[in-house]
Write a structure and sequence with these properties.
By secondary structure, this protein is an alpha/beta fold. It is about 15% helix and about 25% strand. It has helices at about 170-180, 225-235, 250-265, 310-330, and strands at about 5-10, 45-50, 65, 85-90, 95, 105, 115, 150-155, 160-165, 195-200, 205-210, 235-245, 275-280, 300. It has a 6-stranded mixed sheet with strand order 10-11-9-12-13-14, with helices on both faces. A 5-stranded mixed sheet has the order 3-1-8-5-6, with no helix packed on it. The model is unreliable at about 185-195 and about 220-230 (pLDDT under 50).
Length: about 325
């Protein structure tokens, strides 16, 4: 199951309390204060993990509480810090405070960490309160509570190329042929109900990531079909491949529908490097002529089933990624 949104409760650990203690040594009948400080409470930390693809684990367990700091002790011994809790999340996870909506962080790199609930400060022991005029203090401080909040985790997949098309346009078949991904494939609409990622091996040990985004329909930006639930994943792709079934009776209109849906959702999507991929060449006759889309985008006619022009498609994908690199560098 692909889970791309969860709301969880995170609590930093209580700080340990300071100690009230006095030195008790032979021949020192009136030793001074030696109560140590309490340890800070543990924190709740999110960490990016490139091997994860879903937030599913957090849909079952909602509360995460870090360890309490140890209390201070005599002989000026400070308490140990409470144990941190590290929650691993997929790359592309946006973290928000559920109450205020404030974005706390955006995890995009493997190993990147964000502290979402800090542990409470440890209390001071009585040794901290000693002064020249107050030599035997009995004051001490309790530990402070840690941060307590609800947070929202929203996953937006990170990929180099996003495959966009109507249901049953051949996206899953293509992904299965150019990568090791094995999405569900069948000859009916909406076979793909969740995004799939595939790593494509290119020449000279180069790899890039392609995302199979579930089929869009007209009105997707308004939530129709699978709509906004999956449109948001296209935001993270660096380039876009519009897949259109060569048997479509109105391929130009289909492209316009896809283009308009992306534009209506976010104008930035149509500024990404893109190409048009006409699919299912194996089902067409030799005299079939690809339509003129009239938009200046490169067009490639392929058969994922038969393997026609798949190497050329990889070349085109790599060119799009290089274009995206130039745009990023200019930005």
């Amino acid at each position: 199951m692909f889970i791309d949104y969860v709301k969880i409760h995170v609590i930093g650990g209580y700080g340990g309390s300071g100690a009230t203690s006095f030195r008790r040594e032979k021949f020192v009948p009136k030793g001074g204060p030696d109560g140590g400080d309490g340890g800070r409470g543990g924190s709740v930390i999110l960490r990016g993990n490139k091997h994860l693809r879903t937030l599913q684990d957090y849909s079952y367990h909602k509360l995460y509480k870090a360890g309490r700091g140890q209390h201070g002790m005599g002989s000026n011994k400070h308490g140990r810090k409470g144990k941190d809790i590290v929650l691993e999340v997929p790359l592309g996870t946006i973290v928000k405070d559920a109450e205020s909506g404030q974005v706390l962080g955006d995890i995009v790199e493997d190993g990147q960490e964000i502290v979402v609930a800090r542990g409470g400060r440890g209390g001071r022991g009585n040794a901290r309160f000693a002064t020249p005029t107050h030599r035997s203090p009995r004051e001490w401080e309790p530990g402070e509570p840690g941060e307590d909040r609800w947070i929202e985790l929203e996953l937006k997949l990170i990929a180099d190329i996003g495959l966009v098309g109507l249901p049953n346009a051949g996206k899953s078949t293509l992904l299965s042929r150019i990568s090791q991904a094995r999405p569900k494939i069948a000859d009916y609409p909406f076979t793909t109900l969740e995004p799939n990622l595939g790593i494509v091996a290119y020449r000279d040990y180069i790899h890039f990531v392609v995302a199979d985004i579930p089929g869009l329909i007209e009105g997707a930006h308004q939530g129709k079909g699978l709509g906004i639930q999956f449109l948001k994943h296209i935001e993270r792709t660096r380039a876009i491949a519009y897949l259109i079934d060569s048997a479509d009776p109105e391929p130009v209109k289909t492209f316009e529908t896809l283009y308009n849906e992306l534009q209506a959702y976010s104008a930035s999507l149509i500024k990404k490097p893109a190409l048009i991929v006409l699919t299912k060449k194996d089902l067409q006759t030799d005299d079939f002529s690809p339509p003129d889309f009239g938009n200046g985008l490169p067009v490639l006619f392929i058969s994922a089933v038969r393997g026609d022009h798949l190497e050329e498609l990889k070349d085109q994908f790599y060119n799009l990624i290089q274009q995206a690199d130039k745009i990023d560098n200019m930005g």
